[in-house]
Backbone:
């Protein structure tokens, strides 16, 4: 059963009471991410996320870790381009302890100068780790190709320059500006009653003020853009894609079906052609990311440099021919794949908590599972075909790749989708 309460200062609390489980998952979701950052603030959303775990006026960083470990709980956070989330999962009997700890972190973190300086080193290592993971790095490079000069095209982690320039005062100002009551959703799923969640957070967050809603950027895309980053590694990591639809678009369910057909599993077109039939890759898949006003869709493949031209021709051939390749049976099979995956996810209180929060953030309220399943069931072959023709227009696609250029047999800078 879903319940929702809006506190006087604008905080939204959404819960789902599940008395048959022994766990509770809770997330505090702030509507702020790297997209809201000014150029000089690049990476601050992620830096703030780190600092929330570094000690409060009542708990040291070590004590925060020990409290959760002693109770066998999980406490973590993540930063995205439009949200930052702090979450925990514990046994229901430890809910009040975990909730109090999270409230303390969000309201009373100290941002001490020594801790900020130390965390700069941690984030720099995270940056280096990311750059040493080409399959991850190529996705950021791809975002930059799609939206150069826009926050959506920048890495969430920031840069060495902006990280080193960060100060405790700048972090506190960023929190005061963005961590406001009207931009906070508290979501909880598990064996905890709605009234207990409301009482706990209404009391703790009563003094959290309202703020101003920031203006979103207006990303501009130049179709046909490309970028190759030369790196002395064993594989080429390639992303091809283009801007797609926003998350409010009614075609998001046909997009999920199309994504599953193209690269969503071992029966997908990408996997079957590139790996099973030709043996050219180990990893290949399709992906999409939808934002409030735009989104993008693409495919990934990692392969030996000498196979660049063969992989390229297979992928672009799929783009050109996929409207003819998609059958009604493929659509139905993908719908069943998505349906089963969605139902299985409902067995996780963490997944249900995330659904609650995203439903409130994106739709103004939770979407019942029956509505999601109904929307998937209603997807028609013709809708998927129409979307495929739009998305796979060769004139719209751009690409990014990371790999050893010296081992590639041709000039990749001359490659065009069309």
Residues:
């Amino acid at each position: 059963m879903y319940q929702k309460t809006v506190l006087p200062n604008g905080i939204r609390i959404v819960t789902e009471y599940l008395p048959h489980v022994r766990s509770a998952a809770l997330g505090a979701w702030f509507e702020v991410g790297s997209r809201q950052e000014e150029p000089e603030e690049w990476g601050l959303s992620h830096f703030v996320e780190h600092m929330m775990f570094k000690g409060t006026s009542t708990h040291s960083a070590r004590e925060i870790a020990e409290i959760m470990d002693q109770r066998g709980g999980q406490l973590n956070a993540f930063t995205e381009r439009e949200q930052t989330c702090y979450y925990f999962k514990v046994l229901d009997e430890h809910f009040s302890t975990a909730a109090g700890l999270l409230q303390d972190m969000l309201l009373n973190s100290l941002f001490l100068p020594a801790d900020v300086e130390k965390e700069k080193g941690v984030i720099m290592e995270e940056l280096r780790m990311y750059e040493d993971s080409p399959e991850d790095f190529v996705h950021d490079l791809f975002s930059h190709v799609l939206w150069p000069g826009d926050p959506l095209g920048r890495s969430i982690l920031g840069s060495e320059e902006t990280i080193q320039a960060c100060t405790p005062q700048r972090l506190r100002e960023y929190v005061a500006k963005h961590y406001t009551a009207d931009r906070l959703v508290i979501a909880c799923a598990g064996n905890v009653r709605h009234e207990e969640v409301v009482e706990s957070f209404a009391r703790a967050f009563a003094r959290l003020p309202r703020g101003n809603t920031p203006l979103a950027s207006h990303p501009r895309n130049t179709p046909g853009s490309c970028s190759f980053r030369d790196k002395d590694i064993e594989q080429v990591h390639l992303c091809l894609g283009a801007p797609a639809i926003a998350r409010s678009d009614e075609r998001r369910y046909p997009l999920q079906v199309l994504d599953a057909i193209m690269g969503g599993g071992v029966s997908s077109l990408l996997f079957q052609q590139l790996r099973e039939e030709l043996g050219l890759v180990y990893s290949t898949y399709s992906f999409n990311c939808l934002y409030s006003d735009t989104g993008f869709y693409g495919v990934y493949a990692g392969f030996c440099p000498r196979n660049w031209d063969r992989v390229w021709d297979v992928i672009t051939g799929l783009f050109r021919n996929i409207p003819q390749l998609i059958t009604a049976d493929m659509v139905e099979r993908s719908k069943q794949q998505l349906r089963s995956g969605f139902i299985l996810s409902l067995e996780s209180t963490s997944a249900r908590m995330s659904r609650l929060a995203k439903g409130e953030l994106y739709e103004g309220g939770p979407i019942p599972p029956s509505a999601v399943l109904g929307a998937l069931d209603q997807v028609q072959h013709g809708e998927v075909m129409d979307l495929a023709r739009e998305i796979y227009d060769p004139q719209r696609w751009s690409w990014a790749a990371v790999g050893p250029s010296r081992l590639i047999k041709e000039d990749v800078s001359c490659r065009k989708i069309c």
Q: What stands out?
A: The chain is about 45% helix and 20% strand. The chain has a mean pLDDT of 94.
